[in-house]
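# step 3/5: fold
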Amino acid sequence: MVPKAEFTSYYGKPVLNPPVWKPLDIAGYFFLGGLAGASSALAAGASWTGRPVLARNAEVAAVGALGLSMAALIHDLGRPARFVNMLRVAKPTSPMSVGSWLLAAYGPMAGATALSTLTGRLPRLGRATGTAAAALGSAVTTYTAVLIADTAVPAWHEAHRELPFLFAGSAAAAAAGLGLLTAPSAETRPARVLALTGTAAELTATALIRRRLGMVAAPYRTGRPGRLLHTAEALTLAATATALLAPRNRPLNALAGAALLTASALTRFGVFHAGLASARDPKYTVQPQRERLEARRRGAVVPGPGSAGGAAEVGQEAVGGGGVERR
């Protein structure tokens, strides 16, 4: 019997150049940016419903997380001028350009809101900037998902439908965790609602990724990224259940909050490393393309295993000069 052929590439080399991003910088940037954006939304909700301590803590957390996320991004870029250079043009079709302008607009709104609350000056202006920060912050939580899904990295690109929901859910859980950790129990109801909503979105998106992507989902299940994501799911479920079952218990609320923050960070690192693992192994790039090509030859307009949209063009993905890009 002829043994089943095993996939291999030319000298076993990767088909794609894996991203050279530093995990601590970029996965940390994903986590902190999401925490900032969702915290602004939580702060607006707390302010509108008369929970001043939760609103103040979330506003300050949004500014702090945004500052740290920008520091991580600039550290990966090498020098601040490279971020400023991204603002020289506005290109609506580029997630990088849109994200840069989004951060440039969101930062001043979040900063003005926190400054107004801490000083007690210009409260009407503070409410207006808080509303703007909440609207912009919601986009900040998801634009990084669009950014990585627009690359040719298989585990990210093939999950382009679910990643924005996964990132939004993870960000919501992180902001809820910070609220549970820092606010008095009497004011944490919005944080518990946000934790429940974020947990549902995150776990549903993760399950859909593992089911829909076929063999390309393997990096999300196995190895280091699989362990990170499974740990994050367990922590998220346990923390949300604790927050809902013991709403008046301050120590348990704080413990649940810390667990939600940790789980959100693990999720971002898990997604990041899943992308790297899929880029390093050529089978995740070539086999789905072969299956789509075979489906087209048969005249079937159906998605093959790992396909994101059915009859995608073979060869659509390309490796750019400085990293992994799509054209």
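# step 4/5: annotate
The radius of gyration is 21 Å.
# step 5/5: archive (pending)
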